[in-house]
Design goal:
The complex is a heterodimer of chains A (258) and B (385).
Chain A: H1 3-19, H2 22-33, E1 40-41, H3 60-71, E2 86-87, H4 90-108, H5 125-144, H6 147-153, H7 162-186, H8 192-219, H9 221-227, E3 233-235, H10 238-249
Antiparallel strand pairs in A: 1-2
Helix pairs in contact in A: 1-4, 4-5, 5-7, 7-8, 8-10
Chain B: H1 2-20, H2 25-41, H3 44-57, H4 62-72, H5 78-91, H6 102-121, H7 127-130, H8 139-175, H9 181-187, H10 191-226, H11 230-255, H12 267-280, H13 282-303, H14 317-320, H15 356-359, E1 366-371, E2 375-377
Antiparallel strand pairs in B: 1-2
Helix pairs in contact in B: 2-3, 3-5, 5-6, 5-8, 6-8, 8-10, 10-11, 11-12, 11-13, 12-13
Classes of the chains: A mainly alpha (258), B mainly alpha (385).
């Protein structure tokens, strides 16, 4: 749901905006400002600050996440005092469609160009950067605070089904593509500390993907040993499946416990 | 005296506690843990399962207690929630389980009757149909007025469909001979008459809508001839094109014998206006169409719901017939985003702030392998995105 709709929205709006002059862009923005349904709330990842929860009531995993979240160099800042993070305009409309459409494509489609950057319009760049970073934060902190991620990292084959592992692997791939895209389009705007943190997130997701490979291997080990990975039809997030096949073929599908 | 006051106070507190505790603990848990969260997130299958469970378990004044409790959470009565959810899924052509029992029908049929009465009595009728009001004077006001008629049209269509479905359900129960005479009276309702009245209301709506559309074309023509403001001109161009299409479709229906009591709008005038304005402003018409069509798709992507996975996905049928992927469920009223961090009790809008934060978890993959030629592991979900 949303894939077809956002694709149609982008197909209509992106070429129009690419050709538009300043007067036309102003007219688009004026119309959009009178359509409240087109407003977008951003900085959704601030929910990991757990504003309505007492610290003491959090379990150790969530408390740990909260501490890391508060130390993070990547949290969004208020543009104005008492910022309600409500944004509006043609740039935001396009950027939201692009991130939603691109995310489904990355997770489920073959041969994709992540987020179709070649068609990114100038007017949506700042909004897309914000939504991408907010999306990356949301996925990262959600995975960081999710006990299942840690079970996957520990290679708990009995507790995590191959289906669940594939889904988490898809999320890790999605987050990595978001980070790669951020680096490509806005790498120069990040400070060295921020870049280091983004790299840590990326590496963490590589560990998740390696662990997913291990779970797939361990679950179907007997069949894989008898028939080889090539004979097995593995279906899932295309990038992930490719990685799993490579890991298993090269004998890298193993995990080191700390 | 002091002792008497203390005793009285204790009695009062005790009475209050008794009232508060009237909902049994297991029912309260069902409400808090399943029904209310499912209602808030629009998970209708779970709403029906949970509400039917409660409706079949309790009786008498407990229904009132539950309705008060739901009202405190800004939720309609149990009967209304159940009726609306069942009929929403039925009108989407989905199989709804569990089947409605007599007890549940006694709770939901009055709600349906109320809805029909509300339409017939004009309770939901838009202002433009109720009063002698001046025609809108701006394109924005026209758009808003036509939107209220669009919502009313959907209400009428849904009610007409539910009239048929409700009649079939009630008829099946009445024929089953499992209904007590006293309940038989409570379930009897003249659905045929209700449908006729709904049809008349629809004709009245069409009469107003067509008149408004013709009036909007005239205003849009004036805007295009006189206004230098590009935002106004874009709206005017799109309005003329949209109204022409809708008026043409309506006249086609009249040619097939439908809605003959509704005055036929002047199609020639609208077509002439469109042709001459489009000839004068070809690029403007192309731009307006591209812009508003794009926004329309965006709104569908943002607020639309599919039929499975709590609205996040469309059904498997889309794999076989991609054109079927067009259908989705939109909110009744104009969609407005609500701050996800607001602390009021309102339903979330859009129902998910970002689709990408949720969709990843719907695994459509798996592993397939033949092992010793007999065992097959195969896990692919039925969902499409």
């Amino acid at each position: 749901m949303g894939y077809q709709e956002y694709a149609n929205a982008l197909n209509h709006l992106a070429p129009l905006v690419q050709k538009a002059d300043a007067v036309q862009l102003n007219a688009f923005n004026k119309i959009i400002s009178q359509m409240p349904e087109l407003a977008i709330y951003t900085n959704l990842s601030r929910r990991f600050n757990f504003p309505r929860v007492q610290n003491a009531s959090l379990n150790p995993l969530l408390r740990d996440t909260l501490n890391l979240y508060r130390q993070s160099s990547l949290n969004e800042r208020e543009l104005v005092q008492q910022d309600d993070f409500k944004r509006t305009g043609i740039g935001w409309v396009l950027a939201l469609a692009r991130i939603e459409h691109g995310s489904i494509e990355i997770g489920y489609q073959q041969n994709v160009s992540p987020f179709n950057l070649e068609h990114l319009t100038e007017v949506e760049k700042p909004a897309f950067r914000e939504l991408l970073l907010d999306g990356a934060r949301g996925h990262y902190w959600a995975m960081r605070s999710d006990p299942v991620t840690h079970l996957i990292l520990k290679g708990e084959v009995v507790k995590v089904s191959s289906q669940t592992a594939l889904a988490y692997g898809r999320r890790a791939v999605l987050l990595q593509r978001m980070l790669e895209t951020l680096n490509k389009m806005a790498g120069a705007t990040f400070t060295p500390i921020q870049k280091k943190e983004l790299q840590t997130w990326y590496n963490n997701m590589s560990e998740v993907r390696e662990s997913v490979s291990y779970i797939m291997y361990a679950t179907y080990k007997e069949a894989i040993l008898q028939q080889g990975i090539g004979a097995i039809n593995l279906i899932g997030c295309p990038s992930l499946v490719e990685g799993i096949r490579r890991d298993i073929s090269s004998g890298r599908a193993k995990i080191h416990l700390n | 005296m002091r002792k008497l006051i203390v005793t009285f106070a204790v009695l009062l507190v005790g009475f209050h506690v008794t009232l508060q505790a009237a909902i049994p603990r297991n029912v309260k848990l069902e409400l808090d843990n399943r029904l209310i969260p499912a209602y808030r997130t629009g998970n209708l299958e779970t709403v029906i399962f949970s509400a039917a469970l409660i409706a079949n378990k309790i009786s008498g004044s407990l229904f009132d207690e539950i309705d008060v409790y739901l009202d405190e959470h800004n939720i309609e009565s149990l009967g209304a929630v159940l009726a609306r959810s069942r009929f929403t899924l039925l009108t989407q052509g989905q199989q709804v389980k569990p089947q409605a029992t007599v007890k549940e029908l006694i709770l939901t049929v009055p709600h349906f009757q109320e809805q029909v009465q509300e339409i017939i009595a004009g309770g939901l009728r838009p202002a433009i149909m109720r009063e002698v009001v001046e025609s809108p004077s701006t394109l924005k006001r026209f758009e808003e007025t036509l939107w209220t008629l669009h919502i009313y049209k959907n209400d009428i269509i849904n009610l007409e469909r539910t009239a048929i479905l409700a009649a079939q359900t009630v008829q099946a129960v009445l024929l089953s001979d499992q209904v007590k005479p006293v309940d038989r009276d409570r379930l009897s309702f003249d659905f045929v008459s209700a449908r006729n009245q709904i049809s008349k209301e629809n004709e009245s709506r069409l009469k107003h809508e067509m008149a408004l559309r013709v009036a909007r074309v005239r205003l849009a023509e004036r805007v295009l001839d006189n206004s230098p403001e590009l935002d106004q001109r874009l709206q005017a161009a799109f309005a003329i094109e949209q109204d022409l299409k809708i008026i043409r479709d309506f006249i086609d229906q009249q040619r097939k014998g439908l809605f003959l009591k509704v005055p036929t709008p002047n199609l020639d005038l609208v077509e002439q206006t469109f042709l001459s304005e489009q000839k004068e402003n070809p690029q403007l018409f192309t731009m307006a169409n591209q812009f508003f069509t794009g926004l329309h798709w965006w709104i569908r992507g943002r607020y639309g719901k599919g039929v499975t996975a709590n609205g996040l996905l469309k059904g498997e049928y889309v794999k076989k017939n991609p054109a079927a992927g067009f259908a989705l469920s939109m909110p009744r009223n104009r969609s407005l985003p609500i701050d996800p961090f607001s602390e009021d009790n309102s339903e979330r809008s859009p129902y998910v702030a970002r689709r990408h934060e949720n969709t990843w978890s719907w695994e459509n993959g798996g592993i397939k392998m033949s092992y010793h030629e007999k065992i097959t592991f195969f896990a692919v979900s039925d969902y499409f995105y």
